[in-house]
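Rotation project, supervised by the postdoc (A.L.). Task for the rotation student: set up a whole-complex structure prediction and record inputs and outputs verbatim in this book. Inputs entered:
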Amino acid sequence: MLQTRPDLGSPQPYTFPKPRRLRVGNGNVVAIDVPGQQYAAVRLVQPAGGAAEPPDRMGVAALTGEVLEDGIHGNSSLAPALERHGAEWVSRVTWDSFVTGVDAPVNRISEATSLFAEAVRRPALLRDDVLRRRDQLVEQFWLEASMPSTLATRAVGGQLFSGRYATPLSGGPVRLNDVTPEMVADFHSRNIANVAGTLVVVGDLANVDLEKLGTTVFGDAESAPEASVTPPEPAPGEVPRVLLIDRPDSVQSALVLAHRAPSRSEVDLPKADGISDVLGGMFTSRLNLELRENLGYTYGAGSRFDLRRDSGVFLVSTQVERDATAHSITASIAETEKLQSGGVTAAELEAVRESNTVGMPVTYSTARSLASALVEMVVHDLPDDYVDRMRAGFERITADDLGQAARQYLRPEEFVVIVVGDAQHLQQPLRDTGIGPVTVREPDSLWG
Amino acid sequence: MTTKTASGNVRQFTLDNGLRLVTAPADTGQVAAVNLWYGVGSRYEVPGRTGFAHLFEHLMFQGSGNVAKGEHFDAVERLGGDINASTSTDRTNYFETVPEHALDLALWLEADRLATLRQGVTQEVLDNQRDVVKNERRQRYDNVPYGTALERILRLGYPEGHPYHHPTIGSMADLDAADLDYVLSFHERHYGPDNLVLTVVSNLDSDDVRNRVERYFGSVPARREPAQAPDASLSGPIGGPVRDSVTENVPAPAVFLGYRIPPYGERGFDIANLAAAVLGQGQGSRLYRRLVVERGLATDDGGAAGDVLPFRYTPSLLLINMIAREGVSGDELETAILEEVAGMVEGVTEEELERARAVLERDHLQSLSHPSGLADAIGSCTQLFGDPELAYTWPQRWADITTEEVEDCARRMLTQRNLLVVRFDPPAAPEAAQDDGAEHAPA
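Outputs recorded:
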């Protein structure tokens, strides 16, 4: 005899663990002790992302991040050294930050952190290594862009912005070629070598001397400079419009519908994330239910905000069967407009509220996810109780809030629709949608 | 929030209906990880019915006797839970990590679809998920460069009619041919508690978890007749070299090599796993050092050129994959990789082996460092080997393997007779067609 559906009962109250903060030299250590977590996550956050790169050296931050893996002896020496300690190098350059680190068994954290710190502060930066990594990055750009979804996503910047954001973070295949070993050395010495930054540490810290760890990483480096923020200019061109990137014989089309959004500090995040959840952020979101579960056009659809210090982007993305391309776009726009005019249902409101409050223990159930939250807090100057504030924001959220967010943050009338697919088959159906002008481009014409 | 648990805390129970439950009390904070390994995968499929185990995995989310279409996902997602499933040759795996107070709900949802799925499946649902899976196939196989590599590797590695000859995604034609009667009979044949390992990693006491699982799953009857897997026995080398040369619109030539190695779980497999790591795991590996850094022939994969495809019930595969740099031909890269493989016979150093062990151990321990990963490893070891404790002791398997054993493995298995090659090359540019023709002739 099967049981009836159980009542959930009440969740345990959740509070984000209070990080321990230390000032060490000119740097900050922010740490969360997780008793029992034997795999530690260590991250160094420095305020040197891609957004501030001048036009003649776009991609220098990303290339420097790569070259650090060559270590203090050059010639790709860092990873093998870390491997012997069961550790793994971590490097992530974003528009707003330069993040490096290691994941390591907590009983080897001192050795792994020493190796990582040496590599960040005193890399060999050999000329041959820089050139090899640069050429590899350029070739990889095209390898990765042969994936239609990647190509579509990389085309977004050039459609929404002029200036730095119009070129991909890595500098793309053209600008990166102009970055020299001297520029890498200059970028490193100005922004990385002697800039203390913030060290994030998560794991079982019972036997970890955080001060010593901080000293290892910071040495006598100087305080990180304030990052400057200048809002970027928009790209010219009529909106809405369609950019069709030709990929002959594609049996599927990759779609991105994107528009500009405010900067992170200008956005009421629970409301914006909440409305994105309803539209495409969850499996049970409207786009997924319509395009996947109802129409069977796709394996999945999603939406998200990509919010930076000086601006933001909202994106809807999916990959659909070729012949369903045009209808998938009009259906996605229609769902967005419906959300704006009709607001959310009681069930959707509950789903947003619950998943972002009750679900927090799951969201922060790994060392890496806790470390990511701390990195985000450092990059965006958020308070220690930021996660709890977010939870409180979601607890308070109403259907009216989400309806208002749909009107404020979703702008289908400003969508640039990027389609990577077979132009011969798609051009006419896309024109027939009447969304706006349709431009056909070859992939290698996108980044000058 | 972590999974530190003495392996001695792990307990295994078998319910009267055959369900095997493993409990692992651990410091998981406020979450519980639930993991179900059903002993059915694409190895049970027969020609004409490929892709069915995976298609069926999709149908398991489409509603059952007491759960509406989409409700399972909705219920877990609104708890902020992680939920998904995957299918391989040897199992179908469903998993969710939920806040602890929702453990009963997760168990009930799983029990309901195990017991009553056949009441929820309709033709409409089948048609819809067939379309979804066909789009999954397009997204992962047909519309990306090199996407059909695995399919081609399996075709060469296992003879026609062998249950590992095809990939779990199946063919478009077979997906089209799937019918509702077969869906219902598939559930009846494979989805019984006697074919299930259920693992729960949580802060809760083992007896408490056992009582809950008994409550929800205890009354679900065992299958009347366990399904018989098609014969997967196979011995000897591939009989190669065999090759599949593909000219397609790919961005650069790519080389995929495969060698048959012993089944997953045998010592010979572990030795081959170390050989693959010496060759191609990590930036200290031979292929990375020689072909990426020193000779600049292959694109930078970060040290991921060598790997193993673990099959429990038939010989597994050791795989090598690299993509050529600009101006490097597929032949040149293929020759260079084969030279490195041949070099393994000349000798492997203790230092290389230590590094390879460290890489494999790191990956294993990282996967155990979160509740979901630990539950998955325990489920795997219980379903495939009947021993949940193996999840903790797995790295010990590599500890006493010697350089001589790895060299011997290379000598016996990394041979031309045991080699399959799948090569992707872009079409030759028209003006260079004549020159390239000779260069790209099959080896």
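Student's summary: The radius of gyration of chain B is 23 Å.
Supervisor addendum: Residues 432-443 of chain B have pLDDT under 50 and may be disordered.
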